[in-house]
Amino acid sequence: MSLFSDQLRAVWMLAFVAIALVFATPLFLQPSNMLNVLLTAAVVALIAAGQTYVIILAEIDLSVGAVLGFSAITTASVISQYGVVAGLAAGLAVGALAGLINGVLVTKARMPSFIATLATMSIFAGLTLQFSQGNPVKVTDQAFLALGQGNLLGIPTPIWIMLVLGVLFGYVLARTRYGRELYATGDNADAARLAGISTDRVKILAFMISGVLAATAGFILTARLGTAQPTAGTGLELAAIAAVIIGGTSLAGGRGALLGTLVGAVLLAMIDNGLNLLNVSPFLQSVVKGAVILLAVFVDRNSGVLMRIFRSGRASRATPATAVAAGAPAPLLPKVVMISVVGLLVVGAGVTTAARSTDDGSAAAQQKSATLVISTLNNPFFVSVGEGAKDQAAKLGVNLDVQNANNNDTSSLNQATTALVKKPGVLLLDPTSSEAGGSITVKANQANVPVVAFDRVPDQGKLAAFIGYDAVQAGKNGAKALCEAVGGTGKVAELQGLLGTSVARDRSEGFKAGMQECPGVQVVAVQSADFDRGKALDVTTNILQANPGLTGIYGANDEMALGAVAAVKSRGLLSTVKIVGNDGIGDALAAVKGGEMYATNAESPFALGQEVAKIGHAVASGEKVEESRVLQGKLVTGSGVEEFCSYLRGIGDTATCK
Asked: Taking the mean position of all CA atoms in its chain, how far away is CA 407?
């Protein structure tokens, strides 16, 4: 095999990234961090392994993330009733059935795989939410939890599962009749059919393998979190496709190998890990990963040109037979490159060891460091929380590392695990869910890193402190304001947040409880708008169409409330439809002041961030702090906006009220 073949391209990319990180940070080569990289890669690697089979056929499977979530919820539910064996069987059956449906749609219904799996992605995700009602399913069976939390010979179980299944399915692909049929079908389906290959059977089985491996990845993720989350697989299909492309599998079909895919998944995990260790801005991390994918595609499309660069002049001009007959030497440059890579890794390891030996790791240094893992920076509320934390950390002289979990439990868990390698003085944690927060807190307890949680309470582990707003009470406050706005009578609608998240459940629960105290008002529509302004615009437009007599709308956050404002305004109904939001972001306060919104339950995220940083610094310094502090929002109507803005400016928040 050529040192620069498609199958080994990802290995070289991995080596060069490893060299860069070895020299960039002494933390990278720590054994615990190496295990973190592989552990992080395990879920994506398994999904990508199944995706490899499909992409070799020049097809695509966009449903794997939704299949992961559906099988995870099914597995957890069955385990609670019938035990772990029945649960695993049920999860695998769901994955196989989902793959069968995809395969039949592509082969028998003659639908493009992109369209078919895009549709089934939506179907499976919807079935997951319907089946679970948006609630996570807890798993307590220790045998099952060992799949994600156990160790064998000091190596986490998910890594063993990834390696074993990688070898098994790699063998099937490279050494079996089915594997040869798969490559032939992907290269030229018509020719394969004329050669006697049942191409439909080959494709259906490939989609079923993809579904089964997605289900297996769901087992691992559920076992790591200790709970099955309805939104667990969201976005993982894109990471899997990226790993396959980086690994050298051609989107045109007929070419690829599982080794490259597994290395591609590890490479993506390594990039995430390195960027976190280096405290790179969370906004730039996606840019770096995108650049790596572009590089992989560029190399794939220009492999012929690049291969010639690595051949010596004489060897490249001679035919293989002529070269052998003439006793021509093997190309020299590949050998030089390989020796250089190994040498750089050895030198880097030495530099890392020396750097570690001079690192005093003093308690004083730890007190001045903190890591903030925040659920999302795609929402103005949490952006303001982050700004408040950074403002206070600067005043205290604390080096604050901010990581964005993008509303994903898997990302939150992986980023926190990487952060613990750096041994910060305190981990400031905004869990994407109580369940994910619990798993992170347990890991931090084991690493002797104190945890200050905010916004959501982790469901397990020991916290140094908690501070946050009462989400249930926020919903009640919104209901009270809406009842007042419509005069205690009329028809109203509720815009819920992202289904399956704890804050959406809590605010909705509070709103329902609050509306029970306003019997003259009827809630005629309840829809999710995912905490998103654009989606709320569309959802509200549909609600107004179906309910012409609507008098009020509650948005579980200000972004959705502002989307509702845009929809109501376009119909000229601002004077008759009253809108209430939650969070107190700048645009919402301006809308309240201008009379477009009736009120917002303002929560001052900037002040929350400041308090989180203060408490974290006190905990890292060994000071005694209040273990739990629950904050209450303040209903702000038009007359109270200026007073609230004066308060914000007084604490240093100059961005909210411009």
From this structure: 6
Q: Pairing state of beta strands 552-555 and 490-496?
A: parallel
Q: Would you list the DSSP string of 618-640?
A: HHHTT----SEEEE--EEEEGGG
Helix (H) or strand (E) run with residue 570 in it: helix 558-570
**How far is 574 from 598, CA to CA, in rounded Å?**
10
Q: State how far the Cα of 413 lies from the Cα of 125, in Å rounded to an integer.
A: 22
Q: What are phi and psi of 498, to 5 degrees?
A: -65, 115
Q: Which residues are bridge partners to 469 per DSSP?
A: 631
Cα distances (Å, whole numbers) of residue 127 to 24, 70, 486, 497, 626:
45, 7, 36, 18, 42
* pTM, to two decimals: 0.78
The residue type found at 443 is: K
The DSSP code for 459 is S
User: Taking a C-beta distance cutoff of 8 angstroms, is the pair 105, 214 a contact?
Assistant: no
CA gap 497, 265 in Å, rounded: 31
**What phi and psi values does residue 629 have, to the nearest 5 degrees?**
-135, 115
Q: How many other C-beta atoms lie within 10 A of the C-beta of residue 529?
A: 27
CA angle 542, 546, 552 (to 5 degrees): 80
**To which H or E segment does residue 539 belong?**
helix 533-546
Length of the chain counted residue by residue:
658
Please report the pLDDT score of residue 314 as a whole number: 43
How many CA atoms lie less than 13 Å away from 224 in the CB half-sphere? 25
Q: What does the alpha-carbon distance between residue 315 and residue 217 come to, in Å, rounded to a whole number? A: 45
CB-based contact 223:148 (threshold 8 Å): yes
Residue by residue, what is the 3-state secondary structure of 151-200? Answer: EECCEEHHHHHHHHHHHHHHHHHHHCHHHHHHHHHHHCHHHHHHCCCCHH
Rg, C-alpha atoms of the chain:
27
628: β partners: 466
Measured between alpha carbons, how far is 19 from 433 in angstroms, rounded to an integer? 36
Q: 487: Cβ–Cβ under 8 A, 6 or more apart, which residues?
A: none
Specify the DSSP class assigned to residue 445. H
Q: What is the pLDDT of residue 25?
A: 81
Low-confidence ranges of the chain (pLDDT < 50): 1, 312-318, 321-328, 356-357, 360
Report how far residue 318's alpha carbon sits from residue 312's, in angstroms, rounded to the nearest whole number.
10
Q: 3-state DSSP call for residue 20?
A: helix
**Run of H or E residues at 512:** helix 502-515
CA distance from start to end of the chain: 63
Write out the DSSP string of 350-368. HHHHHHHHH----HHHHHT
- Produce one character per residue of 627-648: b if its CB has 16 or more CB atoms within 10 Å, e if not: eeeebebbbbbbebbeebbeeb
Tens digits of residue pLDDT in 435-474: 888 889 998 998 899 999 988 888 888 999 999 888 899 9
**Cβ 78 vs Cβ 90: under 8 Å:** yes
Contact partners, residue 451, CB within 8 Å, separation at least 6: 426, 427, 429, 440, 441, 444, 445, 458, 461, 462, 463, 464
Residues 6+ apart with CB under 8 A from 604: 584, 647, 648, 651, 653
Ranges of H-type helices in 176-281: 177-187, 189-194, 199-225, 236-246, 258-277
